[in-house]
């Protein structure tokens, strides 16, 4: 209950300071203030949710023959390391620290060097909320700092959010110390639109699946499979909407797309678009540098959101994670065919299906190889629901009750009430 009170107080402070924190997050990352506000809201909800679970951590009592019994204790792991990506800096730190602290651990958190700011504010908030000094610590740095933390003998667990190659290195380092890891990695998720969908809903779902945070979202549904008989109509509607996305100063109220995180990321996205064109895809809109009129923004890393048509499953833009505002549209004919193509990926983070046929919706998600599936929506992530991947998108979960298990260990105590029956 003591932990719960600290988390609840931290949630209250975040809520009270939400406008300031959202502004800082926009400056930190470049996402629109509109989206940053949502991130801050999800963040305090996460701390509230785990505050609620903190007091309910308990073991089991098991009766054994002869009056003997056993019981289990759910105990903390110790010092947990959190290593975060730059796309949701504050939210990722809350997704990790909420369950870690609720379970009784301490945390050392390393944000991405591209977004070092807001997690420092989170550390100050935890202190102000009553967390003892040293319970939640921030260490700044890049790969070598992450490696130092991952190899450190005093560290009991690593929770990592980032790319597959780095996740693989972290797992290797953790294996040397036999440390548990949670890996929240990348994706190339499918979004399947059946022709019986509510078209407006499906178009809105595809927008949500591709263009939040300048397309730099791990679970984005970037492979948009559209049933052939609605391909033309769907594509026209999507392109119309994408053209209307307001790009510019992320601190302005009506902006919906700010700059990408940095120059290399912008160039990487342009290289994917160039490669897509060379492989035969057609740019239906966007994919160009965007120069805002405002003088002070001219050197920003802006681009116009892009929709690619005439895509094929074996194109690089369809197979690899771009991590930018680029949607690939792929026609399909049958359910069986689309399932096979949707699952034909080394990733398995998320997937979505739009249909009015409820039986089909459940049948399809049951066959999709993805940890986070959406029916008739996309990219909503309530804290009550576990989030995480299949296949190379990682393992372990964030959010939901189950995450307590990833931040704790189970001790079994066997109690003998009779005499020891020695076999010797
Ligand atoms: N599944 C999820 O929940 C989720 C959420 C956000 C982002 N992501 C993924 O993250 C990727 C983009 O983020 P990124 O570019 O920051 O990823 P990244 O792997 O380059 O870096 C992530 C973090 O790891 C650190 N790091 C880098 N090399 C390291 C090493 N050798 N040892 C230890 N730490 C090291 C970085 O400094 C950073 O803090 C995308 O692939 C995206 O899909 C996944
Ligand atoms: C914390 C939000 C994770 C979404 C993926 O990038």
UniProtKB/TrEMBL annotation:
GO molecular function terms listed in the Swiss-Prot or TrEMBL record: oxidoreductase activity, acting on the aldehyde or oxo group of donors, NAD or NADP as acceptor
Keyword Oxidoreductase (UniProt): yes
SUPFAM superfamilies named among the record's database cross-references: ALDH-like
Keywords: Oxidoreductase
Residue ranges occupied by any Aldehyde dehydrogenase domain in the UniProt entry: 2-413
Listed InterPro entries: Ald_DH/histidinol_DH, Ald_DH_C, Ald_DH_CS_CYS, Ald_DH_CS_GLU, Ald_DH_N, Aldehyde_DH_dom
UniProt xrefs under Gene3D superfamilies: Aldehyde Dehydrogenase, Chain A, domain 1, Aldehyde Dehydrogenase, Chain A, domain 2
Active site (UniProt): 184
The keyword Zinc belongs to this UniProt entry's keyword annotation: no
A Pfam family recorded for this sequence: Aldedh
Family label: Belongs to the aldehyde dehydrogenase family.
Record's protein name: Aldehyde dehydrogenase domain-containing protein
